[in-house]
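To the wet lab folks,

You asked to see what we're planning to order before we commit. Fair enough. Below is the target structure as tokens, and below that is the sequence we designed to fit it. If anything looks off to you, flag it before the synthesis order goes out.
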């Protein structure tokens, strides 16, 4: 039995995110999924900012299920598109669109444009005993001219992290976890829990 074991709800329905986050968590921190606490509904996400959405999802779980939890919201901000798709990254190409549709639209909107700089931003909202905390992680990079690689999820095939030539979709999960927006935000979350123990 590991000492100071802590279980916390990760308020997301996205199994890719659970997998990625689990890979960087220390043994002392275990994630409990929404299904395990009986939450099967879609969490509300109606704010115009990542911070607002992350807090909205975490508050929903805290208020309805009474559990300490964290949630995450991520957006892709493309400079040549004035920060689009931003908070609308998931439904850029429409309400029920696929990642493929989103990538197609992004490449179309950047067609003929050599200014490709972009960043992924993740905000994690944590609620512990009713107290709220925010953590941010940013990955700078460029949008490629065409898809590269088969791995990862979402926009990974067209996101080339700064200083590299391979996309997130061409990296191993370990390599992506060393530099990704989400991993950076999660590292801050872990550091927060570690400081609490001290
Ligand atoms: P959300 O945080 O689930 O709302 O994600 C917003 C959008 O960003 C979705 O379309 C995801 O597929 C995409 N996304 C989030 N994180 C990543 C990532 O690490 N790589 C590629 N796409 C991502």
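Sequence we intend to order:
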């Amino acid at each position: 039995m590991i000492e100071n074991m802590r279980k916390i709800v990760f308020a997301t329905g996205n199994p890719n995110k659970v997998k990625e986050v689990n890979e960087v968590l220390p043994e002392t921190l275990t994630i409990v999924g929404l299904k395990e606490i009986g939450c099967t509904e879609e969490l509300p996400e109606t704010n115009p900012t990542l911070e607002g959405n992350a807090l909205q999802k975490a508050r929903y779980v805290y208020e309805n299920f009474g559990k300490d939890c964290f949630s995450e919201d991520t957006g892709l901000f493309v400079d040549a598109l004035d920060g689009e798709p931003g908070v609308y990254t998931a439904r850029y190409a429409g309400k029920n669109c696929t990642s493929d549709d989103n990538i197609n639209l992004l490449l179309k909107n950047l067609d003929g444009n050599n200014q490709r700089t972009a960043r992924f931003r993740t905000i994690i909202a944590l609620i512990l005993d009713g107290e709220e905390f925010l953590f941010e992680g940013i990955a700078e990079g460029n949008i490629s001219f065409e898809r590269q690689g088969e791995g990862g999820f979402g926009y990974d095939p067209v996101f080339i992290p700064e200083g590299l030539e391979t996309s997130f979709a061409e990296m191993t999960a370990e390599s992506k976890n060393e530099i990704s927006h989400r991993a950076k935000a999660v590292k801050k979350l872990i550091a927060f829990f570690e400081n609490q123990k001290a």
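Structural context that might help your review: The mean pLDDT is 92. The longest strand covers residues 131-143.

Thanks,
Computational group
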